[in-house]
Design goal:
The protein is α+β, with helices and mostly antiparallel strands. It has helices at 5-9, 13-27, 66-73, 79-91, 112-129, 194-200, 213-217, 225-233, 272-280, 285-291, 307-314, and strands at residues 47-51, 54-62, 97-107, 132-140, 154-165, 180-185, 207-208, 211-212, 241-244, 261-264, 296-302, 320-327, 332-335, 340-343, 347-350. An 8-stranded mixed sheet has the order 9-11-6-12-10-13-14-15. It has a 5-stranded mixed sheet with strand order 1-2-5-3-4.
Length: 351
Amino acid sequence: MSDSAYARAGVDTSRADSAIHGLVDVLRTIDTGKPSRSVLRSGHYAAVIDLNGIGLALSTDGVGTKVIVAEQLGRYDTVGIDCVAMNVNDLVCVGAEPIALLDYIAVEDADPEVLRQIGVGLKEGAEQAGVEIPGGELAQLPELIRGHPSPRGFDLAASSFGVVALDAVLTGDAIQPGDAVIGLASNGLHSNGYTLARRALPDLGEELGSATVGDELLRPTAIYVRAALELLRADGIDVHGLAHITGDGFLNLPRLSGSVGWSIDSPLPVPPLCELIAERASVPPEDMWETFNMGCGFCCVVPAAQAPAATELLGRHHEAKVIGSVTAEAGLVELPFAGLAGRRGEGFRRA
């Protein structure tokens, strides 16, 4: 078992990575009796299926233990935004335009008002992303789902679908040393690291300036779809890669390409909430930068000469700046400002 702060809080990401490899190794052996339609390697942000010459992009994700905060506060009208965001932000990373999403809601008790509020968030997220929600599934599982407190328990997840021309799929193969990495600001913790965050900040009513801990923890995940699609369609800008920065932080970047490295030397400002979590739970920098987005929710990789134009375009939607560059150190992610370096699956270590 890992000795990270996140593992001690109950989520051992290194063990989970190993377990996922075991699962994927089995799934790779599926024999449908016909050639595979998969276009991308396993491990990218979304899958792409060749649907008779059209790329059908697929992703699935949930909100995680952020739903516990919603249960404790009795506020359910924002987690739907998180559910949409966690899906469509992955989908657009392969160059796809998200078109639809199907939600899955498992509940301890089918309370009409709770479901209405969840629907409010799903509607808001769908409109921000420009997707439809043509259907979904509600499961009543009182023996499986237990709330905080009971009977408020629920889980929220979804699958999303998009389209992309097969010759426009962002595979990451175009990324090369010297490319610029542009960071887009997050809107708080988004939907990762909540098991650790809730341990560090158990009093949801604690005041933090003009907001409470609960308010800060329920800030919805930013949706980057409109900014990313505008960048992909812009004349004179070659998008080499897009990355959704979620759990594992900047160690998500090697998912784009295993043949290059990454140096993030001028990060976006770290949210005060992250600094408070680190202080209250005595979390070292290497664990913080591996667990949380630390102020950067999305990255765009473009040629260095095109970075000013790309940053200006993205800045119309979100706070954006060049935060680093691509290096020739295959698989290595360096954070020189923090004295850290790491590889995906190994975590950050003191450089």
